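From the methods appendix. Each design record in this collection lists the tokenized structure first, followed by the designed amino acid sequence. Records were kept in a plain field format so they could be parsed without special tools. The example shown here is representative of the layout used throughout.

RECORD:
FOLD TOKENS (273 positions):
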């Protein structure tokens, strides 16, 4: 049988022997805070600064909440009165989000009439929900955007507006309509590691510690399975001469560590020696 790669048998063996895989399971890390682990590599791996490293495989459960401490805040301006509100942390679908948001808006401290939150469908005949409309029976109000929340609380906090897309600004009126509602808070997770000395990647916020970007196209509680492409550009250079311990972190696009709520995850690192 011919060799489809055009290599001699000895060359293939040499390639196989010069590749080391490190299989990682977060349950066996020496330190583990959920999305940040330190992993000990028995015997270590001898590297050169130019050794190429890939995250070749990754699995985890999509166990983060729709609403958590990073995006639960909402500020409402009613005339000259600013109300600081917080959505309960948890997993939401559109109807539960609408219902709870309405309940929170109508809580203590309200200085205007009753609030109503409605789901809007695309087209006059109904169909797919595309937006939320928040209205008040009497009085004008404004809904905070991310910029306002960060100014009041500080980064890296987002507001509820980051999920439902209320217009930026702080204009007071009797109703506000959001843009397309997207309750998938994490579209991609980023696997970081400060254990290496050289990176050929730049993250959304300028980070230089990213090993891989993992698409998250599954629902809550489902398994994310990632296998890296065979692209010759999909690697980093180790930048160190040896590795005995390895730190890995799972972060969102805003650089925040993900709360996995006790679930574990696994990864495979490949070193081309």
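DESIGN:
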């Amino acid at each position: 049988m011919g060799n489809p790669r055009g290599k001699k048998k000895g060359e293939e063996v040499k390639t196989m022997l010069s590749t080391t895989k490190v299989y990682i399971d977060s349950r066996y890390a020496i330190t583990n805070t959920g999305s940040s682990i330190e992993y000990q590599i028995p015997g270590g791996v001898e590297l050169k600064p130019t050794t190429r490293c890939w995250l070749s495989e990754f699995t985890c459960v999509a166990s983060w909440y729709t609403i958590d401490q990073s995006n639960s805040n909402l500020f409402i301006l009613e005339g000259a009165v600013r109300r600081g509100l917080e959505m309960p942390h948890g997993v939401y679908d559109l109807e539960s989000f609408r219902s709870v948001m309405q309940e929170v808006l109508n809580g203590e401290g309200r200085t205007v009439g009753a609030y109503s939150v409605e789901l809007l469908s695309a087209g006059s005949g109904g169909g797919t929900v595309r937006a939320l409309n928040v209205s008040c029976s009497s009085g004008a109000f404004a809904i905070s955007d991310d910029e306002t929340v960060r100014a009041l609380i500080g980064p890296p906090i987002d507001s509820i507006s980051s999920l439902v897309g209320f217009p930026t600004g702080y204009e007071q009126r009797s109703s506000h309509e959001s843009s397309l509602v997207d309750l998938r808070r994490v579209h991609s997770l980023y696997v970081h590691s400060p254990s290496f000395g050289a990176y050929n990647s730049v993250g959304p916020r300028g980070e230089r510690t990213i090993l891989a970007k993992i698409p998250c196209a599954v629902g809550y509680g489902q398994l994310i399975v990632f296998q890296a492409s065979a692209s010759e550009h999909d690697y980093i250079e180790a930048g160190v001469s040896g590795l005995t311990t390895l730190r890995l972190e799972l972060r969102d696009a805003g650089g925040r560590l993900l709360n996995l709520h006790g679930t574990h995850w696994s990864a495979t690192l490949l070193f081309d020696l």
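APPENDIX NOTE: The CA atoms of residues 200 and 233 lie 9 Å apart.
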